[in-house]
Amino acid sequence: MAVAPLRALVDAGYDVAAVVTRVDKRRGRGGATQPSPVKAAAAEFGIPVLHRVDELLALDPPVELGVVVAFGQLIKPHVLERVAMVNIHFSLLPRWRGAAPVERALLAGDAVTGTCLMQLEVGLDTGAVYDRVEVPIAERMTAVELREALVAAGTEQLLRVLDRGLVDPVPQDGEATYAAKIDPSELRIDWSRPTAELDRLVRLGGAWTMFRDRRIKLLDAAPGPAVGEQAGVLGAGPTPTVATIDGSLTMVRVQPEGKAPMDAAAWWNGARPAGERLT
Fold it and tell me: I need a labelling partner for 88 at 20 to 30 A (CA). Which of 23, 30, 73, 235 fits?
């Protein structure tokens, strides 16, 4: 989510002194390390990369402004005292302060979310706001699509505000809600929940259920009417449909445990699960 703002700043002619991002992670069976996407982008531009925010304080000339995007860590007071920072936060603050604002807005069924360019301070997403942009959450929008829309809106917002100058931020107003990180247990499908909730969970990404004592991920599904079965029971028809408490979900794409993603129809034809229950 930080790559597009970085590219936009460079393309607009801003002097980016450094990029701060996490250390390279080990991925795959070979144990090779891979840089974060924003580190890879920085390398393209020849921008120095740091792995500790404190290292900014040693740069010469001093950094005039820090732009924080999806950093995932609180920045300590002694750094904020010396470097002014703004944060592109992907919600309409004070709603959804915290680690997972995009995911929580989608799960809650919010019709609108947005981006705030805020003044960074010690508190968790409590800073005054320079600019707000609303982004509608379209019907059946996925988390991936929503992130893309928010990054585009936040990138345009950042350049617009920097071009006009950082003046007169407005304190946040209203009741705060908190966007806790998504726990893996929240991604398990509870078939006793309403269809609309389950549809949002699938669109979030990573939703899973149990079938014949093995995990199966539901990668894509379409909500539909009741099919005359108890919640969690797979219908007897020719399409891979599972009953919910107030309707149904037709499976579109699945990933059985230990296998690659596949069309749900292919899984259905092979497993022949009609009448069985997902748990």
Answer: 23
